Amino acid sequence: MEYTVQKLASLAGVSTRTLRYYDEIGLLKPARVNSSGYRIYGQAEVNRLQQILFYRELDIGLDKIKNIVTAPTFDETKALKEHMQELIAKREQLDVLIANVEKSIASTEGRIEMSDQEKFKGFKKKMVEENEKKYGKEARDLYGDDAVDQSNAKLMNMSQEDYEKVTNLEEEVKETLAKAFATGDPAGELAQKAADLHKQWLCFYWKEYSKEAHAGLAQMYVADERFTAYYDKEQPGTAEFLRDAILIYTK
Amino acid sequence: MEYTVQKLASLAGVSTRTLRYYDEIGLLKPARVNSSGYRIYGQAEVNRLQQILFYRELDIGLDKIKNIVTAPTFDETKALKEHMQELIAKREQLDVLIANVEKSIASTEGRIEMSDQEKFKGFKKKMVEENEKKYGKEARDLYGDDAVDQSNAKLMNMSQEDYEKVTNLEEEVKETLAKAFATGDPAGELAQKAADLHKQWLCFYWKEYSKEAHAGLAQMYVADERFTAYYDKEQPGTAEFLRDAILIYTK
DNA sequence: TCTTGACCTTCACGCAACGTCAACGTTTAT
DNA sequence: ATAAACGTTGACGTTGCGTGAAGGTCAAGA
């Protein structure tokens, strides 16, 4: 079956302008151009347009879609399966939002109270996404896919109380660590308490805890500037101090 | 609780630029501006930002959001409930897409075959949406909310076979109508067959059929240029002819 | 054969919703 | 008191098209 712009456009539910634009940016070239300059699309283009729309549905930029579908290693089945995972994730995130709306209704009706943080639950996912876009690749290179995925997954599934607990823990770690740093002794009581709090905090993000992994993470804290910057913010050297404390704690 | 731009931004997971932009376009003004020109947001603004993000999630334009949330008759609870309906609808549409992906996988694995039309299922929803944006208001004014909602809902929930049936029916109506028009007799056998087919077609979109509603729709066909344009495309006068045939059919 | 109308083409400007500098004032913490 | 972090207002850039304008193409009917 062959299609002109209009035919394909109405089949797929996009505008003719969109098809011309996709041609222009090299995302979807027609199978051939007839003697009068008309774009003629074939079966392969229909399939490809479908792929493109799949990815567009996930709010992926057209240039990235281009990279994905034009990649020589492009495995259609695999791409589709990944795609489905993301759709399912999107649906789960919608569930969070729906729960949020339900709560908001209860809240405006005065039945319950909502913290400001709760009010933006479900929107946070966007931040996770953007984080992925920015740091995703680095982090994946550094720590491996599984770690990143699990961390994200846990973050997204976290219940409201958990979220509050974890932010509180984060504060506690920082406070205890600051006090411990003042003592200068990573083997001291305070430093070990900080390491323990850090373990608890970590358990919110990790499926299973092991001393080796904890120690490994501590090493990475010092190797990765993003983490050192975070911990050294108030007191330079804190990241190293935390590493030492953890290394002792996990021995 | 009072928030500066950054505080509110990180709370809600948006950028500071976004907040400044929302201020600029009058969508979300800070509670006050301190002596140094800093924007200070209060509790009301937090709640309002939440509302805004809800609507933004539905891809509603900021100007429309502005109209919605600044409307003097703005009923928060009602808005939230409507909002939830749309989120649920969105999730259902995601289900359609997921089903589509599943089929696509089966198709690339050679287990089943997909028609070109099938390939774009789930994307069709966008067309419904855009139709809503363009004609929604008119149509709602003209036919009432319920009719439009039901029609959209049925269209979105339609199964694959139904979709094929309905497009076939549409063709059949057009063909029979063309032949009937040639006879010139709206009471004749062919014209009455066309009216009957039209009824069947209609039954795909209506929850319940009544002769009165069918007759009413026939009148509207002639009154609304969009419909007359559709039916008169091949043969001017066809819309009127169909109306007459339906009026006889429903008598 | 000529015209009409629905197609198709290529520019080219317009738009929303911000991102992203630049250039500069303010607050806070050490 | 000096830096670092945070705030401000322009102002131009970006993405993914929408929307003409100005004009070729093609089948069908007068």
From TrEMBL, chains A, B:
Classification via Gene3D superfamilies: 1.10.1660.10, Antibiotic binding domain of TipA-like multidrug resistance regulators
Alphabetic keyword roster: Activator, DNA-binding, Transcription, Transcription regulation
Superkingdom assignment: Bacteria
Upper taxonomic lineage: Bacteria, Bacillati, Bacillota, Bacilli, Bacillales
Domain HTH merR-type: 1-71
PANTHER family referenced in this protein's UniProt entry, alphabetically: HTH-TYPE TRANSCRIPTIONAL ACTIVATOR MTA, REDOX-CYCLING DRUG-SENSING TRANSCRIPTIONAL ACTIVATOR SOXR
Protein species of origin: Mesobacillus maritimus
InterPro entries xrefs: DNA-bd_dom_put_sf, MerR-type_HTH_dom, MerR_fam, TipA-like_antibiotic-bd, TipAS_dom
Keyword Transmembrane: no
Name used for this protein in its record: MerR family transcriptional regulator
